[in-house]
Amino acid sequence: MSRKYPKVISHKRKQEIMAAYILITPAVFYLLVFLIGPILYAFILSFQDHNLLKPEQAKFIGLKNYFNLFEDPVFRKALYNTFKFSFYVVPLQTVLSLLLAVVANQNIKGRTFFRVSYYLPSITSMVAISAIFMFLFNRNGIANKFLSIFGFDPVSWFADPHYALYLIIILSVWAGVGVNMLIYLAGLQDIPTSVYESSRIDGASAIQQFFYITVPLLKEKTFFVVIIGLIGTLQIFDQAYIISRGSGGPLNSTMTVVLYLYNKAFGENQAGYASAAAFVLFILIFTLTVLQKKFFDEGTPR
């Protein structure tokens, strides 16, 4: 019977292993201190009645925060607004991004200008974009002056609960479509031109090429765009906070889950209650992400 000898690690190999540990230490430290640590702390807070100004008086209350959340009509309204926002923004951004990428990928004069123009809103501050939209759609803004040409009365867009959220949807689609366009553009440039040339020889039209070649070959990019869009829209905060001045108005029509928990945490100092809202949002995002992945995986040929 052959004897088994312990594996000997050379001195050089030990140095490489030690160097690897040293290099990953800052990243591990960052994750533990600024990500995993706060998440665990917030999870503990979600079971407490915790006032930010009086942390020494915190007490364990179990699932009461979670039960109170779903009994609060404002939170239910925030959930409804958030899902409604995602329902409109994600499909619109995805479709428009793909169409713009197809246009920007064409061999036309000035295509670099169009690519930059489409992408520019994505790198502009959301505060600046929201301020521009508030200027355009205020009662004396350009939008009302344009509509008055056709005999329409002026509308207080952001003061009307029927229009406020839809304007934020338009704002978000316009501001976010550029990043997704670049993702699709990179995917389009990875598709071999020979595939299109072969289909053209077989008599495929441009529309058939789009639906039977472009769309299927960009499926992975679409999955990425949809998931990132879903996660981002469910965490909407900036636009709603700026346009409603933090109130979520009018009549909670722009109240979102993140704005709701922000107001509870820093407006009313209810850190435990806000942490519970944050974890409800996390569970929703995680569940929808898993469902989306399953949907895309089932449609992918093996």
TrEMBL record:
It is a multi-pass membrane protein. PROSITE patterns: ABC_TM1 (PS50928). CDD domains: TM_PBP2. It comes from the Bacteria. Residues 79-292 form the ABC transmembrane type-1 domain. It is found in: Cell membrane. Belongs to the binding-protein-dependent transport system permease family. This is Sugar ABC transporter permease. It comes from Lederbergia citri.
